[in-house]
């Protein structure tokens, strides 16, 4: 496959990281007070993260975590995502490569964190391999293969489609795949693991109903 990704930064997702992430709704709730949250972050080996994703957290495994409602702990009604990759796809509307320098620098910001590596240039196949390894980690933790694997444009506005994989636990929808970086950055895409309350859209449409399946994914990963 020809080069179709200017740069890819990623940090391996492990079963332990998946376990920590999916347990967050069941942790003791922490008030919105900065100092109280900071105590919990330090005890976990986490830190605040404001550069890669505004108002997010850097976990002890090195991933970037963002939570609906501001705090990731003890809220079973909140959606969360854990970014373990950031890519800058080739933009067909930027044939003069005017945006390469600053968007590539943003991917480098992701890649400077401990545990992260940057590949430049990259391919969609390389990004898919990162997703495949992450899926193996989720499967190892949950003890089950994904219920659905689908090539989908859901929640992705940049670059080519890649696989979304879906698991359902008793209470959570777990979705692994690409997602548009919704910051003011333009043409960047997260590789992420998302978890959200299953009751946001409990009935999973058949894979042949692609539009309904896209809406199901978006209900669980977007806010």
Number of strands: 10
Alpha-beta content class: alpha+beta
Whole-Å distance between the termini?
34 Å
Radius of gyration: 17 Å
General description of the model:
The chain is an alpha+beta fold and 223 residues long. It has 5 helices and 10 strands. Strands 1, 2, 3, 4, 5, 6, 7, 8, 9 and 10 form a 10-stranded antiparallel β-sheet that branches. Strand 2 and strand 3 form a beta hairpin. The protein starts with a strand and ends with a helix.
Q: Secondary-structure map with pairings?
A:
Elements lengths: L4 E6 L4 H9 L10 H11 L2 E3 L6 E3 L5 E4 L12 E10 L10 H12 L5 E3 L4 H19 L5 E5 L9 E7 L3 E9 L8 E9 L12 H12 L2
Antiparallel strand pairs: 1-5, 1-6, 2-3, 3-4, 4-5, 5-10, 7-8, 8-9, 9-10
Helix pairs in contact: 1-4
Key traits:
about 25% strand; globular; ten-stranded antiparallel β-sheet; 5 helices; single chain
In short:
By secondary structure, this protein is an alpha+beta fold. The chain has five helices and ten strands.
